């Protein structure tokens, strides 16, 4: 019995609705939520295992912009990415876990989250992602950004922090250390953010919930 209790207590804070409720409340109150040691431990380990078992050629140079406007721009970002599909066990469980979070947040905050997309990102030493928004107001695409980190034993002088700015004027920001299991959620249109260069390899998963914009009346191309 004790062993079972023990196992449960190691399953990670992020397992249940209590954690989802904390995210919902943070989003409602502040628009962002920063959670150290939040990713369920087994899920984090299996994602990290999968990530490190993949050959480097599964990763591509990250770009900016969508569809026809998509391009690689080494001034803005220099990381490599690999989209997460349900093909691997770890990937499937990650998508399932986020699907429960999506259901929870839709019930609790009426966000109308419709789809989820997610990629591993590898920042080699010196890589960065300059200050940016994940979505632009009025474009009704990415609504909520979710980032988790898969780096064991990250040290304060390893760098590589995510800096979240409160608004366009904020130059100081809040620094988040990319330690294993830390999970950050924020409104994609509200918070400019950047990734500072690190002195070691930095692994993260960046994800976005989208609303269904296919019914929007946006003229495309614009008149
Ligand atoms: O890895 C991170 O800390 C954030 C990455 C990011 O901002 C992005 O991919 O849009
Ligand atoms: Fe971003």
UniProtKB/TrEMBL annotation:
Q: Which cofactor does it need?
A: L-ascorbate
- Please give one Pfam family short name: 2OG-FeII_Oxy_3
Keywords in alphabetical order = Dioxygenase, Iron, Metal-binding, Oxidoreductase, Vitamin C
**Which residues does UniProt call coiled coil?**
none
UniProt domain Fe2OG dioxygenase: residue ranges = 109-211
Q: Does the keyword Nuclease apply?
A: no
From the Swiss-Prot or TrEMBL record, give the protein name: Fe2OG dioxygenase domain-containing protein
Q: Which organism is it from?
A: Aliiglaciecola litoralis
């Amino acid at each position: 019995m004790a062993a079972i209790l023990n196992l449960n207590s190691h399953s990670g804070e992020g397992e249940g609705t209590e954690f989802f409720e904390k995210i919902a409340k943070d989003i409602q109150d502040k628009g962002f939520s920063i959670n150290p040691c939040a990713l369920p431990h087994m899920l984090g380990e299996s994602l990290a295992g999968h990530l490190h078992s993949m050959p480097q050629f599964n990763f591509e140079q990250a770009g900016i912009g969508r569809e026809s406007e998509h391009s690689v721009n080494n001034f803005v970002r220099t990381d490599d990415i690999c989209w997460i599909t349900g093909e691997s066990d770890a990937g499937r469980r990650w998508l399932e876990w986020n699907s429960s979070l999506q259901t929870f947040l839709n019930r609790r905050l009426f966000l109308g989250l419709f789809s989820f997309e997610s990629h591993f990102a590898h920042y080699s030493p010196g890589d960065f992602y300059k200050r940016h928004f994940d979505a632009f107001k009025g474009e009704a695409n990415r609504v909520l950004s979710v980032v988790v980190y898969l780096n064991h034993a990250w040290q304060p002088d390893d760098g590589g922090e995510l800096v979240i700015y409160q608004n366009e004027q904020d130059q100081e920001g809040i620094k988040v250390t990319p330690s294993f299991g830390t999970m950050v959620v924020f409104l994609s249109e509200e918070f400019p953010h950047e990734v500072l260069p690190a002195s070691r390899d930095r692994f993260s998963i960046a994800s976005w919930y989208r609303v269904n914009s296919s019914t929007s009346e946006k003229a495309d191309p614009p008149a």
